[in-house]
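Suppose you are handed only these lines of text.
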Amino acid sequence: MADLKARIIGTGKALPQKILTNADLEKMVQTTDEWIRTRTGILERRIASSAEATSDFAVTAARIALDNAKFSPLDIDLIIVCTCTPDMLFPSVGCIVQSAIGASRAAAMDLSAACSGFVYGLATAKSFIESGMYKVILLIGTDTLSKITNWEDRSTCVLFGDGAGAAILSAQKGESGILSVYLGSDGTRSDILKVPGGGSRAPLCADVLNSKSHTIHMDGQEVYKMAVENMVAASQQALALAHLTQEDLKIIIPHQANLRIINSVAKRLNIKEDKVFVNLQKYGNMSAATTIIALDEAQKSGVISQGDVVELVAFGAGLTWGAAIIRW
Ligand code: ACO
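From them, the structure of the protein bound to acetyl coenzyme *A can be written out as follows.
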């Protein structure tokens, strides 16, 4: 089985229609377009309606990815949905997607690694495919962080947006596929980025709702430092595992949380700006959906061609981080 690689053969994305601009946010909290632009690089983000849930975007992205791969839902052996904002505690978003697209042969599950979810998902899909257990995997990164955002907290609400991206991975021989993935976590620092209420530790009740502990709590500066440090290290580790160097990369696709984080990572890795894919001005931080939507856009806009080496690198709550090297 060692010569089989997990190759991405189709991708898709789905976004809410509603656009929330920095000017809109100026009317909601004490902030300015200038502050948001200069501190984060974000200009606007997409926000789900009250009728839309995480799985709705996942299903649309999955259908587009299947069309793009020219595969049928019945070809899928396993569905992995990376999310930290499931529709409900159970069933999993994976099972909801399975039902909606009619992938009746597939096993389905969710994976929780916040903004690093899609990179963790790539590692999981790679392992299942290389072991020979599954041949075709639908991997989705999908989140609606707007549903767990405190819209009165200016230090977090300007950062996030909603969306979903999907990839079809297939077992294939040859040079193309996922070459390496490096993953890391540090649960001792979980306090700097969390949603403390609404789980089994503090089940939803009037106190949780009143204190808004069911929304994102973040120490932005600490997260910033940890993100830069660990995205740099993960990138270096993943390249070493693939026996490649920066020079071999066509493009690096970092998690799109903050343009300053992206620029610091690129500077420390000595990577030129034109080798770094950025789309956060349009979407903000969409958690697990971010890197796969960026990959979909990079590939479909012609930035990536067959044979190119691409790196995905992400960081998120947990804390979690990871990087993947893919030969297209
Ligand atoms: N508008 C105006 N002023 C603001 C805003 C705002 N939206 N938010 C904060 N401020 C103020 C603060 O109150 C503070 O004021 P003070 O000096 O009077 O106290 C000042 O701006 C500076 O605040 P800082 O927190 O020091 O600003 P910083 O430059 O660190 O930027 C930011 C904040 C953008 C949050 C940054 O720290 C960051 O991007 N951190 C990383 C966040 C991240 O990557 N999260 C991703 C993980 S999400 C996940 O995994 C689900």
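What can we learn from it? DSSP finds eleven helices and 13 strands in the chain. Residues 220-241 form the longest helix (22 residues).
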